[in-house]
């Protein structure tokens, strides 16, 4: 058997043993960080050794070392793609989609007929495939980042709307009756009781939309984009069989998407520290 394959098996067995030992230790922040870090490093090492051991063609699956070298050599391109796709397309669409969904949720809560008419339509629109909607948005809003932001708005709006509406009805009758005994208006009740009570649902929708936003922007770029952007780069480099560049773009997307999700989760912990779900 190939020496590299034997080495990969040995590393896998050693990492398995070490992870089992870590799982038996008292759980704290250091142990919680070590376990996924060890798992991730082990996967990368196994990937490298198995690709080299079986002499896999880089057209099928490049080694992590080749991806890292392409990543380091293409930093200006990767940065320009990130700005175009994430900063301009995904973040803009995320802010517009989530912000407008919260405002519409308040209107739905204020006007019950909207709940009966709008939410079923929302469920229908949410089920529409992005593959079908992205070309239409490109035709409507052009080939630049505006069409990608429109796709992101469409993807984020209804998940955020459903979570916001559900969060606004979480307060019980006793809490609302107490606010009425204090002669609180609808808006006072909304800002001092219902929105704070709905904050876990709001942040749940915001976290869901972090991944939807980046996915939507990348997929939309497959159907028309200027000569920059993560989706444009992936589709172009696949056609040129430059899979190391494709994996470099995927790495950037994974890191940025995870960081965006983590940032929203951190803000949630800071804002909803009082909620039972955030306690020890």
Uncertain runs: none
CATH architecture descriptor of the largest domain? Orthogonal Bundle
- Name the shape in a single word: flat
Mind telling me the CATH class of the largest domain?
Mainly Alpha
* Integer count of domains: 2
Chain-averaged pLDDT: 83
Question: In sequence order, what are the helices and strands, one letter per element?
Answer: HHHHHHHHHHH
Give the total of beta strands.
0
CATH superfamily of the largest domain: MetI-like
Number of helices: 11
Radius of gyration: 24 Å
User: How far is the first residue's CA from the last residue's CA?
Assistant: 50 Å
CATH topology of the largest domain: MetI-like fold
Main beta-sheet annotation: none
- Assign a percent range to the helix content: over 70%
Structural class: mainly alpha
Name the beta content range.
Answer: under 5%
């Amino acid at each position: 058997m190939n020496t590299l394959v034997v080495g990969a098996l040995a590393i896998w067995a050693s990492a398995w043993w070490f992870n089992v030992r870590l799982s038996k230790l008292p759980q704290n922040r250091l142990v919680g960080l070590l376990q996924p870090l060890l798992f991730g490093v082990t996967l990368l090492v196994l990937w490298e050794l198995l690709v080299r051991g079986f002499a896999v063609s880089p057209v099928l699956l490049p080694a992590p070392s080749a991806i890292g070298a392409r990543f380091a050599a293409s930093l200006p391109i990767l940065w320009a793609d990130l700005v175009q796709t994430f900063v301009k397309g995904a973040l803009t669409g995320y802010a517009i989609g989530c912000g407008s969904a919260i405002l519409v949720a308040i209107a739905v809560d204020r006007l019950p007929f909207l709940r009966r008419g709008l939410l079923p339509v929302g469920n229908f629109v949410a089920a529409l495939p992005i593959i079908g909607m992205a070309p239409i948005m490109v035709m409507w809003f052009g080939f630049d980042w505006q069409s990608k932001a429109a796709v992101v708005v469409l993807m984020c709006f209804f998940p955020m709307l459903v979570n916001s509406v559900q969060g606004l009805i979480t307060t019980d009758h006793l809490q609302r009756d107490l606010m009425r005994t204090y002669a609180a208006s609808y808006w006072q009740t909304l800002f001092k009781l219902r929105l704070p009570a709905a904050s876990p649902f709001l942040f749940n929708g915001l976290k869901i939309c972090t991944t939807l936003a980046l996915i939507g922007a990348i997929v939309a770029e497959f159907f028309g984009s200027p000569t920059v952007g993560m989706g444009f780069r992936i589709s172009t480099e696949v056609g040129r069989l430059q899979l190391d560049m494709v994996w470099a773009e995927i790495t950037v997307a994974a890191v940025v998407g995870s960081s965006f999700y983590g940032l929203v989760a951190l803000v949630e912990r800071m804002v909803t520290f009082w909620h039972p779900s955030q306690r020890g």
